[in-house]
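Aim 2 progress update. The chain analyzed this quarter is reproduced below.
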Amino acid sequence: MKDKLGRNFAALFTASAVSNLGDGIGVVAWPWLASLLTRDPLAIAFVATALRLPWFLFALPSGVITDRIDRRKLVVAMDLARFALLTGLAASLWLSGSANGTPGTGWPSHPLYWILLISALAVGFAEVLRDNAAQTLMPAIVPASRLEAANGRLWSVEVMMNSLIGPPLAGLVLTVAVPLAFAFNGMGFAIAAALVMSIPGNFRPTRAEPKHWVTEMREGAAFLWRNPLLRDLAIGLGVLNAAYLMMQIAMILYSQEVLGLSSTQYGLLLTAGAFGGILGGVLAERVVRLIGTGMALRLTLVTALLQAVVMASIPHAAPIWGAILMAEFTGMVWNTVTVTLRQRLVPQHLLGRVNSVYRFFAWGTMPLGLVVSGLSVKLAEPHMPRAMALTTPFIIAAIILLLLVVLMWKRLSTQAIEGARFE
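Predicted structure tokens:
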């Protein structure tokens, strides 16, 4: 890898691997800790919402910041900030005795819940700024002709650590001590910061004299909105992500109460996403070459719909594992194609802002999906058995995804994509 893509990419690749291992532990640890404090589905959803809400609140300003200062230093600073936050949370868990006792069914009164909520929000803000800056580093490190290969490898290792190794490891760590999961998560960010700092060079974008930050945000939004392809992909991904988060947070209680899974078994269930994502990252280029860009993106929407249908109708771990694998495979193809497309279409001095606007639409909807998930279960419970109520987020997600397939099908034809690239 070093010979083909260079030492700088190797450092970025390794940093991504280490930090995403920590993130993979966090995927299980955050909501699982919340479920130890309360069985209220809305309260659990609020913890996940706090992690994602900054994408709605801070995505646009983060693009202006990314286009004004050295992007490498920004990545390092945000990784160190998350290290400090997660280490502090782990210490709080140790001192408070973690989440001992039987969780209540109502809104949590334990002070630890509020510490968890505030920590999740702070980590979320750091993540927004860090991820936006990191994605703009790639074109400055890798030749344009190798962007697909570099992005595919980066996505693959991200999924491997985030979904294949991290969640099962989290399940094991949580059985030993809950605080360890957050301590390991934070340590990953510290190591990643050191690796990114080792990349030499100045990564401050060359640009004209800075304007008012609102004017700069408008420039990024105007560029994206003038390109029908980028606009449709951003909005479509926003709906897709909202539906995905509805299902993901619903799986916490569903896996415990309906599927009867332990924390370790739940972590193993999530490995389906890793296997699918790794294969998708490795094979994305071949898939696009075989069936075309448009059909590859359409396939992502269809498999997401299939995942929701399976979760809503088949209460068994094996078919759910298979549905997650398929959805993550095509989702990784989507990510590889769309990220590379933005890196090629958008000028370097605008890339941070356009990325932030894109992610505002694509990720800003996630908090809404999380709240709808928890609220739907809470509203359904008085009218049906608990097990049935826990499936309502999957049913709602399936309806949303069916509408998305219908609305986006023509917009994602290969002809429409090729034509929009040059408008």
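Residues 246 and 373 are 5 Å apart (CA to CA). Residues 7-37 form the longest helix (31 residues). These observations will guide the mutagenesis experiments scheduled for the next reporting period.
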